[in-house]
Amino acid sequence: MNGPSSDPRRSDPHTGEGTPNPPPGLVIAAALAIEARALERGLTGAGGTKVVRVGVRARHAMRVLPRDNNSLIVAGVGGGAGSQVRAGDIVVATEVRGPEGAIVRSPAAPLLAAALRALDLGPGVQVHLGPISTTDKLALGSRRRALAAEGVLAVDQESSWLGTLADQPFAVVRVIVDDERTGLYSPSTVPRGREALRTLTKLVPALERWGAAVQSHRRVVLASPRSFCAGVERAIEIVEEALERYGPPVYVRRQIVHNAYVVADLERRGAIFVEELDEVPDDAPVVLSAHGVAPAVREDAAHRGLTVVDATCPLVAKVHTEARRALRDGNTVVFIGHPNHDESEGLLGEDPDPANPRIRLVETPRQAKELEVEDPNRLAYLTQTTLAEDDAADIVAALRTTFPNIIEPPSSDICYATTNRQRAIRDIAAEVDVVLVVGSRNSSNSLRLVEVAQRAGAAAYLIDGPDEIDPAWLIGAASVGLTAGASAPPLLVDAVADALTGFGPVLREEPTGVEENLQFTLPPMPTLLTERRQAAGTSTAPTA
Ligand code: SF4
Q1: What is the model's pTM?
Q2: What average pLDDT does the chain have?
């Protein structure tokens, strides 16, 4: 696997040749001499980072800041605003609001905050993300409370001025010395100030790493198609419609789709995710996830009279139908898939006699070659919908070699969304330094995208969102490919693309890809058990 810049084709964003742009060098601006000294103590010497003292209210900034293409971090102590920010905490500015209404955004904020959270900053130190306000005079008492009411998390007297001067990536980090509870003028301010300076020193290596990842320009190439597929959109819409039809809570067996953001969002809106149906009360509606379930799960739900809405993707349901047909025709089914995945578990559940299995799971070519079956001439294979095409082809080839009469599925079981996303990222990965795949760690199709990109020669990483980008991945990387698994929302891709602008100006490209128009209809919402009882004029639960 190539890392950044190991292939000269990948190095220059315009010509495709030459060496990558050297990082322009980071300047850390501090108002006070004691802050500047604390920051200098933390310098590792990497990347030629300079600490520059600009004076209170950045009085000398124009005179002392280097005029070349530096990235700029304003770092020092500050005052906390709002009850959630405590002395000793750190605030990373998403934007800086100036006294005259100027607002300077800092797209780098989520990345920097994540890098700071990864440091060992001592017990109880929280890293917050939010607006910082620069004021002419010290903002205390009611003034600071008013700013907190507007969402401001910290106040200082320099950042806004420096932000308007910076034409390169800009960030602000404040270690909080005083908060709502402590006030500024208190005997404990001095020891808190000392502690804050010690924290400042500890932050510097993370600031340097961010500075090293900054480029004067970088290509970001978005794969198309990417992100949600028709099956995932349908599954999410089913939970949303169930919440609207029945009101919360709506139970969902297993993660509706394998994405942490989607699950957290639906939880916030009233969905309760459970592992098994025995966690679902009799009179509550339950949605079955997009990955499909074993027939035993449906039988259990029917036996209890549960109100079930099935969000199984129609393309997963198709594989179940093929499995039942193959079994009915007297074949043993070889299922190419990943063990412990919800889709494999559901499909294996189609086996009528697990003690004497007629569905056999294989995950590797070797397992395919070593497979022993009762009748090699009564054999059919099927695949999980989210496999990597290349992996599946290798396993199918091994099966065909060992079992020349094996029956193929009527059409590929690897779904259109999986195939399209893999082909799109394969093309891009061949010409970029780094690939970022947005998706959760339990998302099979997202993991496969990482593997496909790595095979195409790029360094590739799976991230749940922008705060998982490690700046170290981008050092020397002049081009970044970006995609998302079928279960990852488009808004997270936008958030990652936006965060990348925190490492310097970005030239955004999106090569034309396959257009996807597939849509699945939603199932009807069944009547609740309690409604059925009322209609029947009985309170007795059905038993079959
Ligand atoms: Fe359906 Fe394919 Fe999407 Fe899975 S990835 S939910 S099989 S369309």
Answers
A1: 0.87
A2: 91
